[in-house]
Amino acid sequence: MLRKTTAWTGLVILLGTAAALGHGDTVPQSVDTAGLPDLPEEMAAENPWRDADSNTLFKAVEVGAKGYNSNCARCHGLEAISGGLAPDLRYLEASDYGDEWYLDRILHGYEQNGAVKMPPFEGILNQEAIWAIRTYVETRPDDQEIAENAAKLAEMRDKLAAVKDDQPAAIALADEIASAGQGFEALSGAPRAITPFDEAAYLLSTQPPHVSAALETLQAAAD
Ligand code: HEC
């Protein structure tokens, strides 16, 4: 009985996927963009959040990371670090030229000799999701540089871990953690790189603060 149910569920998933994409790949997922400022209906030609204030920028990175993980990571690599299947999006220039290329690919996808190499996301992702994903990829720091700072990350993690049950003390660490993240450059040339230090500091500064998420962010990056 159990086997039968499992097989049936598997078949439904398989058929649903095949119908949605036309071949056996994962279905593109819409992205919840709640919390981001609404953009005008007409598609922007350039990333509207490239020079946004910190709150908008971090929100865009947060939403963009989710959108990226559910729609792009399987080809373009986890944390936007390409394993070679598809181009490494961290290097796509944060400029009007890079944005034009980005929009063309994300809206229309890419076909070669009748085979879908990249599915189109037009009509699946709204404009906010499209630019949030762009903001996430273009603010990626150099993973080598992050790896070289593992000791500093571990130090901040330990400081935060020591006060994790004392919310005001945890929040008070936000500035120190943020300054530890200064000086990193984005691989795309974007005005700002968002490092795990920045993410942790941001998570501590939200209302309500997300202390354990901040700790997990530092922990994951320090490992
Ligand atoms: C099924 C695999 C697959 C998925 C899923 C996928 N892509 Fe791609 N993508 C590719 C391949 C392959 C290329 C290279 C096509 C080419 O030669 O231009 C590409 C190219 C691109 C380019 C051009 C990069 C460059 O440097 O030329 C961008 C931008 C891009 N993808 C963005 C995305 C985003 C954003 C998502 C998720 C919303 C996504 N892709 C999902 C496979 C994929």
TrEMBL record:
It comes from Paracoccus maritimus. InterPro entries: c550_proteobact, Cyt_c-like_dom, Cyt_c-like_dom_sf. Residues 1-22 form the signal peptide. Residues 59-141 form the Cytochrome c domain. This is Cytochrome c-550 PedF. Keywords: Heme, Iron, Metal-binding, Signal. Transmembrane segments: none annotated. It comes from the Bacteria.
